[in-house]
Design brief:
single chain; alpha+beta; six-stranded mixed β-sheet; 33% strand
């Protein structure tokens, strides 16, 4: 998907829709543009190329991980490809201010075994910080693990739905 504004010629992430299916030249465009294109086209063989967009000492934080360094970040994405079928990111919107950016995205995948084999979707956001070289030094994902993941699992899901009903405001 071309995210260049026809009027201004600037990169924009505000157009919803399916992501890129082909990898693009990661050397072209802004650091944010390279990051979005990289993740929308991410395949297992690309995990070894994380050093192209992440600083060697980058920090990655999500609801399950808090790691530092491209090797540790690579292990997270390699594990994702082992555990899930057809995982892909669809960036919906992004905002950038200086060396920081925030993305909203959908993560689409299928569980390999156990839980429902249907297509799953998790909606989340990512805070990014870039260094002076344009590489990511902070990647922090925000998403609701309880509502977006646990509630969809057979046994845990029933408990999560019960807790939500008990803790939530009555209609």
């Amino acid at each position: 998907m071309d995210r260049t504004d026809a009027r201004t010629g600037e990169f924009t992430c505000t157009v919803p829709g399916a992501g890129n299916t082909d990898l693009v030249d990661r050397g072209a465009g802004t650091p944010l543009e390279r990051m979005v294109r990289f993740f929308e086209a991410l395949r297992p063989e690309d995990v070894d190329r994380l050093a192209e967009i992440y600083a060697h000492d980058a920090q990655f934080v999500d609801p399950f991980n808090d790691v530092k360094g491209t090797e540790a970040i690579g292990r997270i994405f390699a594990h994702m490809f082992v555990q899930l079928d057809e995982p892909r990111f669809i960036v919906l919107e992004c905002l950038q201010a200086g060396e920081q950016a925030f993305l909203t995205w959908d993560f689409v995948f299928r569980f390999r075994s156990g839980a429902s084999a249907g297509l799953q979707r998790i909606h989340g956001g990512t805070h990014l910080r870039f260094n002076h070289e344009g590489k990511v030094v902070l990647h922090r994902d925000y998403w609701d693990a309880a509502g977006e993941l646990y509630a969809k699992l057979p046994l845990i899901g029933a408990l999560m739905r019960w807790l939500r009903r008990r803790a939530g405001t009555p209609p």
